[in-house]
Design goal:
The protein is α+β, with helices and mostly antiparallel strands. The chain is built from 27 helices and 29 strands. Residues 1-26, 433-533, 688-710, 748-790 are annotated as: Disordered.
Length: 790
């Protein structure tokens, strides 16, 4: 599906749901939008999804606005701290809040989500303006989302990664990953239990066919700071074969694969209200062949014994059971549907359908392919019509199609979702391979097909709605969830670039032996289709023969950190940043060579600084600190007390003399103009600060100070200037830290007007007074805005 090939654009341009003019539709509020569609209602009535008695409740739920959901992310300890902050600091106040006499539904954990880390709330936007408590909670969510401690995600969209059962040793492929909310869960599962500084042996390949959307994944991955992720840009159905050396060549297969495929998104009507206007019966017919091909490719790429999850945010059996049943049928005994009824027991779900009907373009409904006349379907849909219907009842029973999960909006106040968990129980035989190729490849994609939502704009649309629930990022937009499921329609990529799965032309990695630096570019010189990747290719750096050695020596990075993971993007023989990938990522990239279109990978660990007298031309970068920390010379890792941490957070470039003597001494052991990492370990600090008795007393005073709730260690990159020291984090990260450590709510710009300069003036006053004047510490360069605090 390349640019010159089929185009799934409606040709109507503009925003999803727009007409043919290419102009944006006039803004309509949630109430104004007609939340009904005669064909949709007729179609789902005919499917008998939930029985006649229950159907009105289902349709009614589909018409109401969705609550907001989020997940607490990150390392276990840190996630627990954030959870406690929500439970202890916000929930009790919100419970007592009323707005215009009405009670507000307090945030509550999703019953079925493990460890109380999935949350839901419904706060009308209008209420925010009327309650200080609600607006404080909102600010907190916005800040923590930006720094990566919270991820906004529709509740049901959290289910597929949980059922994939990812372990830290697994190689995981996310076929249709952007914008990456599920990928984030997969990465967390791979990272779970990893020891500090020791990346796990698993990896996650986050792939998306749409280059622009693959770039959205990069942002998501940066928040996660994992060296075990690669972002790639291929059509899922043509994800390339990667070979291990040997004869015969063995294809790299994955332990786990997620196929969260593009779909009509009619399970998202509560969020993406325009689906009511744009839903058409044959959208599903167009999607079915692409969905099948993606799933079929995933089956080939799955290890025997591996698990695959197929999911959509559509209720339509043509996009769900039809795809699963026909692919299972093609692969015979190699696949089985897994019974996951015992997993996530508190999650309400209904079984997959073993029979359903198909609606033609004219709205006529058919129980079997025999009654459909060619005029009522497009030519390609008509040719593919067998794939849209169920298999014979006996075969459907044999496949155990009821093991699929259907989640309906009225069951537990969510969106609608479909999930199938598939296991590859035996290798695919030659016969099955031939049959799959024959039937799968024979499926045609619709040349003239047009899909809802297939426009050139980003999925986030700006139909603000004051009556809508409040999103974590501060907008009231019904459609702008980071999570695509909530954003509504899943798109078919149109500008994907593919390297054919069996592209014999694929070249091996180039090795530049000259000058000792081994350079292995991992992007095709000339992608066959799609836009050229904007960045230079990644090149692995040889620690012994490059500038890297000097940097590692300066910071005393021990050999316990493998030297094989350092890489960079080289421009004019030089590099600005140094990244690090875990060993499995290096292996994959070496095996793949130019077959893999890598958009991004690795965590930034060092950045070139622009300070002339610095001992090292590179400084430490926040996102790489936790990875480097266990390997760094202790000289650069400075433990601080709560008092010193408070000074560092409350003051802009505090003078060394403002810190405790012990800390001054530690900092003076480091050259001026250098990076250092400040570490605050709450348990160690409490032990150092006093006896168990003192701690107990502290705990008896309700409510505890914010830092008493901190249990995870904080590591913060700092810049040690000549006479001062400054925290090197973005403004949002600073806000998050000030809130977590000092209990003060600060806006996202990092200032609450109370941070002090060395003359005791507040930030705001100092800024007005010092316009045109030099700052106290010119060498303390401003940090970049994307560095997370560990
Ligand atoms: C439902 S969204 C994925 C949502 C994502 N899994 C998440 O949880 O954030 C579907 C994605 O599939 C991508 N896509 C469309 N056609 C594709 C194809 N043929 N192969 C791979 N990805 C495709 C779209 O660009 C879109 O980002």
């Amino acid at each position: 599906m390349g640019r010159g090939g089929k185009r799934f654009g409606r040709g109507r341009g503009g925003k999803r749901g727009g007409g043919g003019s290419g102009e944006r539709q006039a803004y309509k509020s949630f109430e104004e939008l007609r939340r009904d569609n005669a064909n949709l209602r007729k179609y789902y009535t005919a499917q008998n999804l939930v029985g006649e008695d229950e159907f009105p409740a289902l349709i009614e739920a589909m018409r109401t606005i969705l609550p907001t959901n989020f997940r607490i992310t990150g390392s276990r300890q840190q996630a627990m701290d954030i959870r406690e902050q929500i439970v202890g600091e916000f929930v009790p106040h919100i419970r007592e809040t009323t707005v215009d006499g009405a009670e507000i539904e307090a945030p509550h954990p999703l019953e079925w989500y493990p460890n109380g880390l999935g949350w839901q709330f419904s706060i009308p936007r209008i209420a925010l303006k009327k309650s200080k408590e609600l607006s404080r909670f909102h600010s907190f969510l916005v800040t923590e989302t930006e720094v990566g401690n919270i991820s906004r995600q529709e509740a049901v969209s959290m289910v597929p990664p949980l059922l994939l059962d990812v372990q830290p040793s697994h190689w995981v492929l996310d076929m249709c990953a952007a914008p990456g909310s599920k990928t984030a869960q997969l990465v967390e599962a791979v990272e779970a239990g990893a020891e500090p500084g020791r990346p796990p042996s698993g990896l996650v390949v986050a792939n998306d066919a749409d280059y622009k959307r693959a770039c959205m994944l990069v942002h998501q991955m940066n928040r996660l700071s994992s060296p075990n992720v690669v972002v790639t840009n291929h059509s899922g159905e043509q994800f390339p074969n990667i070979y291990r050396p040997g004869s015969p060549r063995e294809v790299v297969q994955f332990d786990r694969i997620l196929c969260d495929v593009p779909c009509s998104g009619d399970g998202t009507t509560r969020k993406n209200v325009r689906v009511w206007e744009t839903w058409r019966p044959d959208d599903a017919h167009t999607l079915n062949p692409v969905q099948s091909k993606i799933l079929q490719r995933a089956v080939h790429l799955l290890k025997t014994g591996g698990r695959l999850v197929y999911s959509t945010c559509s209720l339509n059996p043509v996009e769900n059971e039809a795809v699963v049943a026909h692919v299972l049928d093609r692969f015979g005994a190699a696949l089985r549907l897994v019974d996951v009824s015992a997993e996530l027991p508190a999650l309400k779900r209904r079984p997959g359908l073993s029979t359903w009907k198909v609606m033609a373009r004219d709205g006529s409904i058919h129980g079997s392919p025999e009654t459909i006349v060619p005029e009522t379907l497009s030519r390609s849909h008509y040719r593919n019509r067998m794939q849209l219907f169920p298999l014979a009842p006996a075969r459907m029973a044999e496949l155990g199609i009821e093991r699929c999960l259907r989640i309906y909006p009225h069951l537990q106040n969510t969106g609608g979702f479909f999930v199938a968990v598939i296991e590859k129980v035996a290798p695919i035989t030659a016969d099955e391979k031939r049959r799959a190729a024959r039937e799968g490849d024979a499926m045609e994609e619709d040349e003239d097909a047009v899909l809802p939502g297939d426009d050139d704009d980003d999925d986030n649309n700006d139909d603000g709605d004051d009556s809508a629930n409040v999103n974590v990022d501060g907008s009231a937009n019904a459609n702008d969830d980071e999570d695509d499921d909530a954003a509504g329609v899943k798109r078919l990529a149109t500008d994907a670039s593919d390297i054919g799965a069996d592209d014999a032309e694929a070249k091996r990695p180039k090795v530049d032996g000259k000058g000792g630096s081994r350079r292995t570019p991992f992007q095709p010189d000339c992608p066959r289709e799609g836009p050229a990747l904007r960045e230079n290719p990644f090149v692995f750096l040889d620690a012994r023969a490059s500038e890297l050695q000097g940097i590692l020596d300066y910071y005393g990075v021990r050999e316990s950190m493998s030297r094989r993971g350092f890489l960079s993007r080289i421009e004019d023989g030089s590099f600005r940043s140094i990244y690090y990938v875990a060993e499995p990522v290096r292996q994959l990239m070496e095996l793949a060579g130019q077959r893999l279109r890598v958009v991004n990978t690795g965590i930034r660990v060092f950045n070139r600084n622009c300070v002339k007298d610095a001992g090292c031309a590179f400084r430490l970068v926040g996102e790489g600190v936790s990875l480097l920390l266990p390997h760094l010379d202790e000289k650069y890792v400075v433990d601080v007390s709560l008092g010193d941490l408070q000074t560092l957070l409350e003051h802009v470039n505090p003078l060394l003399s403002a810190l405790s003597e012990g800390l001054q001494e530690r900092l003076r052991a480091v050259d001026p103009s250098s990076s250092v990492v400040v570490r605050y370990d709450p348990a160690a600090a409490a032990a150092a600060a006093g006896s168990a008795e003192a701690q107990q007393q502290q705990q008896q005073q309700p409510p505890p100070p914010p830092h008493a709730r901190l249990t995870a260690t904080l590591t913060i990159p700092c810049w040690r200037g000549h006479a001062s020291v400054s925290v090197h984090v973005s403004k949002t990260q600073l806000s998050s830290l000030i809130h977590r450590v000092l209990g003060r709510t600060v806006d996202r710009n990092g200032a609450d007007g109370t941070r002090l300069d060395n003359n005791g003036r507040t930030e705001a006053t100092a800024a007005t007074e010092t316009i045109g004047a030099t700052t106290t510490e010119p060498e303390a360069t401003e940090p970049e805005a994307t560095e997370p605090v560990q």
